């Protein structure tokens, strides 16, 4: 699985992980659910309390919250998403290339996580501005 965490259209972090042998024997639908729950678990500190969008190239997941849950696997994965404020948006695979490239990288070990961090001192600018106008 390959995932990109983005904010305002810019990538913030990347996450990639190989599926276990058990998941490799499962359906594509279960793969997609496993990828969503693993990603939300990985970045829960950024996502809790905020509304976010999950963009997937698997059309049936778009209706995840409105469809009938039929298997124990679906119950398990959906229970892991309780408490999060999200919606799922479908985007075709050809226009979702960043995550697709991560999931197909040939030289990855069983687990890889990369983070892109850029310092942004907006807080200090806002603090100085507020202090200048405060009596």
Determine the strand fraction and express it as a percent band: 15-25%
How many helices does DSSP assign? 6
Percent range for helical residues?
A: 25-40%
Computed structural class: alpha+beta
The biggest beta sheet reads: 3 strands, antiparallel
Number of strands: 5
Radius of gyration: 18 Å
Order of H and E elements: EEHHHEHEHEH
Give the N-terminus to C-terminus distance in angstroms. 54 Å
Features:
single chain; 135 residues; alpha+beta; Nucleotidyltransferase, domain 5; two-stranded parallel sheet; 6 helices; 38% helix; elongated
Q: Summary?
A:
This protein has helices at 21-24, 28-42, 44-47, 72-80, 97-103, 122-133, and strands at 2-7, 10-17, 51-56, 85-90, 111-115. The protein is an alpha+beta fold and 135 residues long.
Could you explain the architecture of this structure?
The protein is an alpha+beta fold and 135 residues long. Strands 1-2-5 form a 3-stranded antiparallel beta sheet. It has a two-stranded parallel sheet with strand order 3-4. Helix 2 runs parallel beside helix 4. The longest helix has 15 residues. It starts with a strand and ends with a helix. The relative contact order is 0.20. The mean pLDDT is 77.
């Amino acid at each position: 699985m390959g995932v990109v965490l983005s904010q305002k259209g810019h990538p913030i972090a990347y996450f990639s992980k190989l599926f276990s042998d058990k998941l490799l024997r499962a359906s594509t639908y279960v793969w997609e659910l496993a990828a969503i729950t693993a990603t939300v678990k990985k970045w829960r500190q950024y996502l809790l309390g905020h509304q976010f969008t999950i963009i997937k190239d698997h059309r049936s997941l778009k209706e995840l919250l409105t469809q009938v849950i039929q298997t124990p696997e679906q119950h398990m994965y959906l229970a892991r998403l309780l408490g999060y404020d999200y919606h799922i948006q479908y985007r075709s695979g050809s226009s979702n290339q960043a995550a697709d490239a991560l999931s197909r990288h040939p030289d990855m070990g069983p687990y890889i996580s990369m983070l892109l961090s850029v310092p942004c001192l907006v807080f200090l600018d806002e603090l100085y501005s507020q202090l200048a106008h405060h009596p």
